[in-house]
Amino acid sequence: MDDSMTSETTECNLSTSERLPLAGLLALATSGFITILTEALPAGLLPQMGSSLNVSDAMVGQLVTLYAVGSLVAAIPLTSATQGWRRRRLLLLAIGGFAVVNTVTAVSTSYILTLVARFLAGVSAGLLWALLAGYASRMVAPALQGRAIAVAMVGTPLALSFGIPLGTLLGTVVGWRYTFGIMTVLTVGLLGWVVAAVPDFPGQGQGRRLTLRHVFLMPGVRTILSVTLLFVLAHNILYTYIAPFLLQVGMGGRVDMVLLVFGLTALVGIWLIGALIDHWLRALVLASIALFVIAGCTLGFAGTSPIAIYIGAGLWGLAVDFH
Does residue 203 sit in helix, strand or coil? Predict the structure, then answer.
């Protein structure tokens, strides 16, 4: 029996199962967890990284910007170019990219080299995010696809809730370089987990592939892409510079706590979305935009009030997951 027949048989067996393959889905969730940690950790360690690399906080913020640019420019062309690749090989390639770039980030003393590593990390992220939801849905029967995708995506709120605050605290205690080194070790372990627990699937056949132009011209796609771009851009700007903002208002030692509040309300947002999204999708999108505006105004006019800043961070967390 050739590889194609074996994969199709495996997919058929998984799709008719009435149980979630939690080991494989949690491996996918951990992939998302590491992706979010890699993306956002510099925001919590901005002053330490700036001092070590001899650049300003604004220049360290570009490490997040380059990550986002890498994701933006790579996601669509890479996804299109690799449609025919076997899925697990592609997933391992994306995860392995994080092991390499986080190692480079941990040891680099050059700001330019670190920028390049962050750009390549974004490329890996763009490829990985394009894989996760579809991969999870192929692992289960149609009736379980929604729950499977929810499990595979739980790494994002967990990273926001616990990973980034703990990573920020760890970076403060042992240094930001060791923190990125620890992430490399976790990533290498994840590669073994994926090989052991995540099934392989064939890529799309030539006849099933849609051109980028065809997808882009579908009704509503351009509006969705525009809204998503603007929302994520606004969120990333705020997240990137939250540490210097808190330092300016006298809460520089509370970055981890503010991010924890942000992450916990993001978890609440995930629960609300699961309960409401099937019937209130449009309302949730509008609510997320409104909440983000209110959160930004609350933070902007909070002055030195810790309570107002925590409220703003909480509304911000809700807004991100509602979107």
Answer: coil
